[in-house]
Amino acid sequence: MMDFLDQKVRSLLRIVELGNFTKAAQELCITQPAISRQIKLLEDEVGFKILERSQSGIHPTKKGAILIDSLTKMDRIAKNMTKMILDEHFSGVPINVGITHTVESSLVVEAIAKYIKDSSSDMSTKIITNTSDYLYKMLKDRELDFIVMEGKYSDPDLKTVLLGTDCLVLVTSPESPLAKRGSVTLDELKAENFIMRLPSSNTMKTFSQALSEKGRSIHELNVILELENIATIKDLIRRNFGVSILSKSTCLDELKKGKIAVLNIEGISMIREVNIVYPMDFEYQETIQGILQCYNSL
User: Which domains are assigned to the chain?
Assistant: First the structure.
């Protein structure tokens, strides 16, 4: 397999990964003095010390950590490029997309699928679902080409395009007495059992912030269960085990079929943006525009 990294760099990355000069030398089939000499040459080239020793082991210096992080990203990109070049079955443009759990349950995936189907370009797409913070890290590490998420990040290296808006609503079973109402107060919700998303989700962060702005707290509510899976939450709500706060866009199908009911909470606005976020140097701008058009047509 092709290796685009200098041997000195390869040795550095193995030392960092294994935390030991001797083990790295053995794995790379060179002597320990030889690998030490490579690191010294690399430090001479960059003009600063990369690694330092302490009683707890080998650690990067402050500048060394920055260098190692960049080299690790380069290594990942090089490996992916090599794999594509050598894969005889590969054709087309590979696009890696990250979406949040809420976005996964909305029309966004359908819009991406429609764009791929209708596009004349030969594109291979992989979709990864996770929290927005995790996806942001993957995007910065160049493991993803773009992400679709609620809200956005203040990052000069990223561009944000508005896909649409969404709102959080109270979700109940059609059998609940609340289902016949158009709205409900926070004080009335104290009597309900809540089945919520995890605190790390954008949904819960948005709801908590909305409560805080009104001088209220989620701790005033009776949260009996916290789950990541939105489909499971909706199923429990449908069977009247409790109520929840979810993105309205994730409930459209069940709402249309009469399986759940949604209400607004009086005095609280929970409207938020859904954005496509991508690096400034992302070269397939037509893909972003194509997905936007497909989403707006649904």
Answer: 7-86 (1.10.10.10), 92-298 (3.40.190.290)
